[in-house]
Every structure is written in structure tokens, then in C-alpha cells.
């Protein structure tokens, strides 16, 4: 979002300068006026070449607003609101304390919008990069119901549960990813720097080398002569996949295949069930209408196949049907889940039933991740040993046959 530098006159007549973030100049002027100042001069601040370079390089631009920032903000704002501190003053306090400069700027903009007369939820909705749809939906419900402090506590608990779930899945993927990366690096090192040394030794034998040795030497020669393919091919494959995934057909195909993957697909389904039930249960419990709740859940599903299933459930409810039936038809949600949701609908305790399902599947994900980690570890070690050991054996085979080789 553009940044506007302004020069304005305060109520006491003093002239001050500052900066404000806004989508357009009129909005920037309105924000300055909301601070009880008269605008003298205002203009968009053009970023320097160094800032542009920073923004182009990943990791060097503005830091993202993390779930940790949101959790801390929600808990602190809940405490301040419960203590009777006005929302504008609360936001000023939290903006001053924020360590993340991006989040600090967002909070200052939200405070300015609220001072200008916008509701809290509408002010937050203007910053989707910081506040997701579920956050603004629950804040709106808290405003309407007059239970903003309670909603903020629930949001904190929800975000913490979501982060714990992500951490479990990341932990399962981290170990094999690191080992495979090391395996790839060691293999390239052997083929490019070590194998050529053996080649000069083998050339003095004067006899035909074993097939495995010839294969390894051929791969080594290819990598040395076509060294630029080592970084180029993975990069090209990544960008080709990224472009394919950006298309609607590719997005759906990849998401569908991920859910059907032999090992990881089971975990992804459990994660999807846990996320769906936790999110929808929290929304309903907070007073968000079920139709709006399902729309929010679909938008934050992260998988187009699951999104379609949730939207089908929303359409079923719109037509007077039940939530459980289209979820069961999708094939993603197990029978136990759909049956419990059906019972929750009949008894009027859907939010409680969804929370129980989420707790159960959090444990299921934990167990599945532990099982996957214990299974992947020996498989990765076997794979690593096979690749590295195969190269070593192929290089030593001619030496084992030296008694049968003689120079011409």
C-alpha cells in the first residue's frame, strides 16, 4: 500500500510532518484529518531504489504479519478491552509495543480508520494481509453481540491450535526434506569432484570396465559438461509447476492428488478435518451465522477440493438440507465425522460436537505424524545408503577385478 508524506497543522497551531499509509490520496487526507489536523501539503512518498531492490528479493522486504503477532495482539487487546480501556487507546498502546514494523503500521492505520468512524471489523477487513477472513468475521460477531473481549480470547485459542497443527505437519516433513537435500548435495559432490579422480586411474587399466562403473562415469561426465543444468532444471521444474498450479484445472488436479497420496494423503485429510471442524466450531460458537461461517471456512480451506465440498454443504443448507449429507458425499470426511455432525445438527449442539471432533483429530494428526516420522526415518536411511553406497561400490568394482585386468 502506498505511503503518503504530509505536512499538517495541529489544533494548537503547530506545524508537524509525518507519514500515513493509504490506498489513495483522498484516503490519506481523511486519515490525517481524523487525527484532528489540517492538511497543508500531502504527496505520495516514492520508494528509493534500495527499497525496491529489497522488496524484489524474498526475505529482504517488509516482514509478514505472523500468527504469533496476531495471538499476542488478540490476548493483549482482550485484556485491555476487559479492563475498560477504549478501543482507540488500546490500539495506540499495542501499536507502540508492536515489534513487527509491518504490523505496527497496520495497527496505526486501523486506529485511524476507527477514529474516522469505521467499525472495528471494517477497519480490520481493509488489511487482509494481516487479518484473515475468519478473524474479521469473528470480530464482527463480537461487536454485534457486545462480547468483543470473549471473542478475542477465542481467537487467540483458535490461532494457537492452528499453529500447533501446522507445526506437527512441518515437523513430519522437515526430517526427510533435510536428509534428502544432504543426500542430493553429497551425490553431486561425489559425481563432480571425486569420480573424475577415479577416471584417470581407471584409464591406465586398459581393459573394459564394469557396467555400473561406466554408468557412474557417464553421469559424472554429463554433469561436468552440463553443469548449468544442476541449478537450471530444478528451477525450471519449480516454475513450471507453479504456473500449472496457478491454473484452475492444475490447482484442482494437484490438490486432489495430494489428498489421494499413499501416505501423506491420509495425514492431509486428518489435518483438513481438524481445521474444518475447529474453524467452523469456533465461528458458530462466537455467533457467526452458519452460512457466513461456511463461506469463511471454504475461503480459508487451502485446498480447492475441500473448498468445493464445504461450498456444496453451504448450498445444501441454503436449500433447507443438512450439513452432514454433502460432506459425506464428498468422500473427504469419514463416516464418524459426518455422523457426529448429523447428531450435532439434530440436538442443536453443533458447535460443541465440532469442537469434540477437532480435539479428536488433533490427537489423530499427532499420532499419524509420529508414525510417519518413525516410518520415514529408516526408509530415508536405506535410500541414502543405497545411493551413496552404490556409487562407492561402482568405483571399487574395477579394483576388485584388478587381478583379471591387464594392460594391453
Q: How would you characterize this protein structure?
A:
By secondary structure, the chain is mainly α. The chain folds into three domains: 3-56, Roll (Ubiquitin-like (UB roll)), CATH 3.10.20; 67-160, Receptor-associated Protein (Up-down Bundle); 169-408, Receptor-associated Protein, CATH 1.20.81. The protein has helices at 25-34, 49-56, 67-82, 87-97, 101-115, 120-125, 133-145, 148-202, 211-225, 229-246, 248-260, 264-285, 290-299, 304-318, 324-330, 335-347, 350-400, and strands at 3-9, 15-21, 38-44.
Explain the layout of strands and helices:
Layout: E1 3-9, E2 15-21, H1 25-34, E3 38-44, H2 49-56, H3 67-82, H4 87-97, H5 101-115, H6 120-125, H7 133-145, H8 148-202, H9 211-225, H10 229-246, H11 248-260, H12 264-285, H13 290-299, H14 304-318, H15 324-330, H16 335-347, H17 350-400
Antiparallel strand pairs: 1-2, 1-3
Helix pairs in contact: 3-4, 3-8, 4-5, 7-8, 8-9, 8-12, 8-17, 9-17, 11-12, 12-13, 12-17, 13-14, 14-15, 15-16, 16-17
Notable traits:
extended, mainly alpha, 408 residues, 17 helices, Receptor-associated Protein, 5% strand
What is the N-to-C order of secondary-structure elements (H for helix, E for strand)? EEHEHHHHHHHHHHHHHHHH
- Largest sheet: spatial strand order: 2-1-3
What would you call the shape?
extended
CATH superfamily of the largest domain: Type II secretion system (T2SS), domain F
Taking the alpha carbons of the first and last residues, their distance comes to: 76 Å
CATH architecture of the largest domain: Up-down Bundle
Given as residue ranges, the uncertain stretches (5+ residues, pLDDT < 50) are: 53-61
Radius of gyration using CA atoms only:
29 Å
